[in-house]
Amino acid sequence: MQVKLNNSTVILLLPKGYERVNNGAALYEEMYHRHKAADVEMFQNLAGESYGNIVISHIDQIDAMTFDKNALISEIHGVLADNQGLIEVETGTNPRGFEYVYSIVKTYHQEQLNTNYCIRMNIRNNDELIEVNASFFETRMTGVRSSVGLMLAVKAGFETEEGSSLQIKGWAADPYDPTYTKGCLMLMSERPGLDGMFPGDPLSQARELLLALTADSYYKTKDEIDAENKERVHERRLRRRNTQHENAVGENNNGQEIVRQLFSDDVVRNGAYKVDVVEETPSETKPTRFQLDPASLVKATASAVEGVKSTVTNTAAEFNKVKTPYEIPEDFRNRLNKPIPKKLPGWGKRDYIGYGKGTPLASCICLGFPVTDSESLPLGNTNQLIEMCRGMDDHQGIISVKGGITPKGSRYAYVIRKMQAVDDEGEVQTPIHYELGFNIRINGKIHFIDGSFRDKNGIPGSRADTLNIMALGNSELKLITEQWQRDPYYPDRKSGLLMDWSEDERFDSLFPYSSLSEMRRFVKYIIENN
pTM of the entire structure? Predict the structure, then answer.
């Protein structure tokens, strides 16, 4: 993706997979504590084991970093907290002549066992100064890189501390000053050579961003990249062959030297990101990371309301777009497979339509059917609708209750709840998910949409967990939050599944593919188009 700020002479290149945050400028003040920039662009990336948040803005000279590498290292050493460590500092000039300076600082949160990495980067072109702030957080299983790296270091035969076979000498050290011992020092497992083994790791993702900004590889053609990679592979094979030969004739013939190469700072990053060059302006670049192709729906499964299990159609031949008596988003027009019960729990026999959407992050199932006036939610009467929700048990909570008239004159009412299914003994059976009850009157007929929106099990980047890590803060980013949990309509309600601050609508743009964000976007579309 190409990024160009207003009135800028600099085009920046982000790696594949980054998406623009629509309300990034509004979130900027809550998340970064430096200054209010006139122009702000925010982007995000969800990789295998990490979530990245990036802010790009113009800055004044008074706010700039020093472009003196040694001075910057000394400056960072002077301000690091006890749970922080310096990973990397570099200066240089990229292929198009823009000067740059950057630092990577890690912050370790002991209670969460979570490490995040923060980039601060300045790019200078004559009098123009651009700042890049980026934070990358662990989102799935934490500590994998350090634990696997330690095992590799043992296998590589690095010297260990006396009396221990697992304590590697120099395992934790400052990369620039061996006498600096304060804080959470850089580990050998955080060296660049191990990035290729952990491509979805937050530090690997941080370096991928820096590689795009400093090396401008996107301006090379695919043929040029492939030719370079082929030559690098050939050189590496020769080095490996020579190393193997040396090991074969020496006393050490167990491949230790090959493993040691992983811990080198001078490791060729072959094919770090191969892309075809597409000359697009930012306005033409559209996010495609989670768009569904009919042939790719094989694994898109979901659980419908009240335990009704359904699957989105999974082959191109079965991709028969469902027709509804009201307008729905095109990506929801996926007909549900059988089995679907003839009788819906609580509704009996109904002439209903089943449709939905499956993505790598969420499953969204909707059942639509006509209802009578007496069965419908009170259309347009929000206060009455809120009162109806008072009798919730401790396994339910309200996110949003609204009623009104659409731009086309149709009355509607809806309730968004968070829920957990329990058995007869009160034991929790399912994770928290979001349920939608939506009524709309079109041409005199009331239609009911019963929706179940759930995050996929084991997905990277829980919305709540990631935002909580952001709130803890690091060297550049800290999300301002009241850390509240409350019922948005009944202040006296203190138990049950209360809405929490991470479910606030303003954070939907940071997590556009979470189940709650998908639901709000679905509801918005229904209201605006019917």
Answer: 0.73
